[in-house]
UniProtKB/TrEMBL annotation:
Boundaries of every HTH iclR-type domain copy: 8-72
Gene3D superfamilies: 3.30.450.40, Winged helix-like DNA-binding domain superfamily/Winged helix DNA-binding domain (1.10.10.10)
Organism: Amycolatopsis halotolerans
Residue ranges constituting the IclR-ED domain according to the UniProt record: 73-264
Keyword Transcription included in the entry's annotation: yes
PANTHER family listed in its UniProt record: HELIX-TURN-HELIX TRANSCRIPTIONAL REGULATOR, ICLR FAMILY (PTHR30136), HTH-TYPE TRANSCRIPTIONAL REGULATOR RV1719 (PTHR30136:SF35)
Keywords: DNA-binding, Transcription, Transcription regulation
Cited InterPro entries: GAF-like_dom_sf, HTH_MetabolicPath_Reg, Tscrpt_reg_IclR_C, Tscrpt_reg_IclR_N, WH-like_DNA-bd_sf, WH_DNA-bd_sf
Transmembrane stretches, start-end: none
Protein name from the UniProt record: IclR family transcriptional regulator
SMART domains: HTH_ICLR
Database matches in SUPFAM superfamilies: GAF domain-like, Winged helix' DNA-binding domain
A Pfam match: IclR_C
């Protein structure tokens, strides 16, 4: 029992060091002496503890300045915890969309260069499409992807376009009778679409990502006021195509309620 208490108290002290490295002062990293001063602990103990945390990936050490910062694993754990909380909080709101529109609804986030679905709520239709949870897709020709990019400035969007667009800018290059009817997406066209999202608060796609499929998406804002996710509704064009604007406005309203639940500023 004594060993367990010793281990537990040691873990608490290590967490205290992580909190010190999260202070505004630590933005550019902190040396061992300053971490020891701020935590009120012995310098030698702090040095050993930081070395152990670095081995675990929870902190990183700059080889030149010897300053410590939060590590990659800590960011990964924080991201996972945030996304888990977001998916859980959004679930009843997604079900409200399904109840009103009777179409499958998704909660999507941006990871690296792709859009991933955190959670889906399925409609009662026999045809529900593919399960998208955990599957990454191109952001440029999807409504949630464009929503997630819509708060970026033009320079950042342009950099992304030049880095990631390529062949992915048009997802249907080899389907006769389909690709020919869809003009290729250009950076100028994408920029105009992002401006439209900022103006009306939602985005629509009409067979741009997949033949016969339409969709709408609206942004979810976090407590800092930035876009943290997108709520998406997708369905066959035969069912949803005639009511895309109404579905977009309703999805935007529900997404705003999720934002409010997250503490987003109005």
């Amino acid at each position: 029992m004594a060993n367990q208490r010793t281990y537990g108290s040691g873990l608490v002290r290590d967490v205290d060091l992580l909190e010190v490295l999260a202070l505004p002062e630590a933005r550019d990293g902190l040396g061992v002496s300053r971490v020891a001063e701020l935590s009120g602990r012995d310098k030698a103990q702090v040095s050993r503890a930081l070395a152990t945390l670095a081995d675990a990936g929870l902190v990183s050490r700059d080889e030149h300045t010897r300053a410590y910062r939060p590590g990659w694993r800590l960011f990964a754990l924080a991201t996972h915890a945030t996304e888990t909380h977001l998916a859980h909080l959004a679930a009843p709101f997604l079900r409200a969309i399904v109840a009103r529109l009777n179409e499958t609804t998704h909660l999507c986030v941006l990871r690296a260069s792709q859009v991933f679905t955190l959670r889906s709520e399925l409609a009662s239709h026999a045809f529900r499409g593919l399960g998208w949870e955990g599957v990454g897709v191109d952001p440029f020709t999807t409504s949630p992807g464009r929503v997630l990019l819509s708060e970026w400035d033009e320079e950042t969007v342009g950099q992304w376009w030049r880095t990631f667009a390529g062949a992915a800018a048009h997802p249907l290059p080899d389907l006769p009778g389909v690709a020919e009817e869809l003009p290729p997406l250009t950076l100028e066209a994408l920029t105009a679409k992002l401006a439209g999202i900022r103006k009306r608060g939602y985005e629509t796609v009409d067979e741009e990502f997949e033949p016969g499929l339409v969709g709408v998406s609206a942004p979810v804002y976090g407590f800092r006021g930035d876009i943290v996710a997108a709520v998406n509704v997708s369905a066959p064009k035969s069912r949803l195509g005639g009511r895309l604007p109404a579905a977009g406005r309703f999805t935007r309203t529900v997404a705003d309620r999720i934002s409010a639940a997250l503490g987003a500023p109005r």
